[in-house]
């Protein structure tokens, strides 16, 4: 059961494990695997082994321009002797356990601190739609941003579709963040989770087309035609469109050109940031949580 807004525990609750006997063995094994990943992530967070790298999103026709923004990318360093902790599997596990909001808050607090410290930087961070609902914590974020409009204008929230939230709650969340100048991006548009009705509702500032369409465009003329049509649709839905997944030097073959942004290793590989963007308990997050606790 989802906990009341703003009241998640800072530790991984063991109660799901206690309920394993209620589930078939395969489900119980999956739950146990999710809990192991969550505990490993909690240990990494406590020991400073979680950081954010970033990757620039650049204009296709003018790569010399300043990036549209730099997307922050979660990196978790495994403890000595442990296997790597796969980021995407971790995120899915935290969503299934109802703990993804803890991760999103830590990441957002780290991003806000860096934006506050660097007045020309533009950053984006991913946000699960489980997190995209107003509560006491987000009310405090809005108050923090209202006092710092120069930070809000340089923040983009990329909504992922791996966890489907309540449409009305998400719409209200987007409206409130936009009031302060925050930009909204829809990530992985065209993937199985995406919902065109939601995109029409959200009226995003940025749409990022799922990387599989870029791959298919390189493989065949039919794939390139599909991408051109999808790109035309996206341009009707948002002022900025990003093609993801340009990972190799020949990635530009058959790709549309013009007023579109590009992201991938062939454009700008992810960079380890100096000074490091360590995900712990950033100053802004502590202040936001103090505000939220006073709001109840």
Task: Supply the key terms.
296 residues; alpha/beta; eight-stranded mixed beta barrel; 9 strands; 44% helix; globular
What do you see in this structure?
The protein is an alpha/beta fold and 296 residues long. Helices cover 44% and strands 17% of the residues. It has helices spanning 15-18, 25-46, 87-97, 100-117, 136-146, 149-152, 167-179, 196-202, 211-219, 221-237, 283-295, and strands at 50-59, 69-76, 123-128, 155-160, 183-189, 206-209, 240-243, 261-262, 277-278. An 8-stranded mixed beta barrel has the order 1-2-3-4-5-6-7-8, surrounded by 5 helices.
Percent of residues in beta strands = 15-25%
Shape type: globular
How large is the count of helical segments?
Answer: 11
Average pLDDT level: 85
Strand order, sheet with most strands: 1-2-3-4-5-6-7-8
Tally of strands: 9
Helical fraction equals: 40-55%
Based on CA atoms alone, the radius of gyration comes out at: 20 Å
The main pleated sheet reads as:
8 strands, mixed, barrel
Secondary-structure element pattern, one letter each: HHEEHHEHHEHEHEHHEEEH
Uncertain runs with pLDDT below 50, 5 residues or more? 1-11, 17-21
Helix/sheet category = alpha/beta
Q: How far is it from the N-terminal to the C-terminal residue, by CA?
A: 20 Å
